[in-house]
Amino acid sequence: MIIHEIASKRIIPPLKGIIIHRLYKNGYSQRKIASLFSITQPQIHKYLSKPIEKYNQLLEGYGLNIDEVNRLVDLLIDLISKNERERFIIVLSSIADYLARKYVCIHYTLYREYCSRGRVIDPFIVEYENTLKKILSLRKIHRLIPEVGSNIAYAPHTAHSVFDVIGLPGRIIRIGDRVIAVGEPIYGGSKHTASILILAQKYDHGKHVVMNIKYIGEISDLIGGEYSVIKCGPHKASNFWSDIEECLTHKPDILCDKGGEGLEPITYLIVPSLNELLTLLEKILLVTV
Prior knowledge:
Strand order of the largest sheet: 3-8-11-10-9
Structural class: alpha+beta
């Protein structure tokens, strides 16, 4: 049985049951929940006919940590509350895949040597995690995190959709002079920065990483001519993506977006690799803080 079959047969049904119960408890109607999952209202009623404890017990019986499952469900509920339906579906798919990989490591001895920290190893996820850890430990990195938080999008190969891009389902957020990463990196975890990366790759196939940091309008003067810097905007929210794409046709390494009405100004670092991202952040921190 391949991992996606395990996800569809073992993981997704109880996971959906938990989410449906949580949404119903939060006041969502059966009809609205059915629309969210693109299934019928009677199917929602069937999920609700079993207590949520039944779904918790199923996942625990598979050896999964129900506290971790509920933290992941919290992320999904938050996305729904913000009406981010598309991102909800993407993150739900990635979470199901993540839990299925953990299930494989618990129940299939054949794959044990490929497991790390209880789940099947994805070398690109490990690479992302290692780089993220180094970035979070950079001195004064909190000064580069914007109000909306940061995310890192990493596409090991050419990305055709956000499912090809690794990101955090939450964000990198600033708490005082500390920064923390919310959620574990998964494919499809980032929508916005992943979309920037996909557009960037359209014009420069060598770019594989995007990170958003606070707006630094004078960055080209600070870091010299080693990196190509383009300024973009300000623009209306309705024109954001067309404006961004136009700026990305110039193949910048750094895109300084001035934002606009309801849009926070942001600097996007668009680089070939995670190592190059770390190097660029170190250079920016050296001259700006």
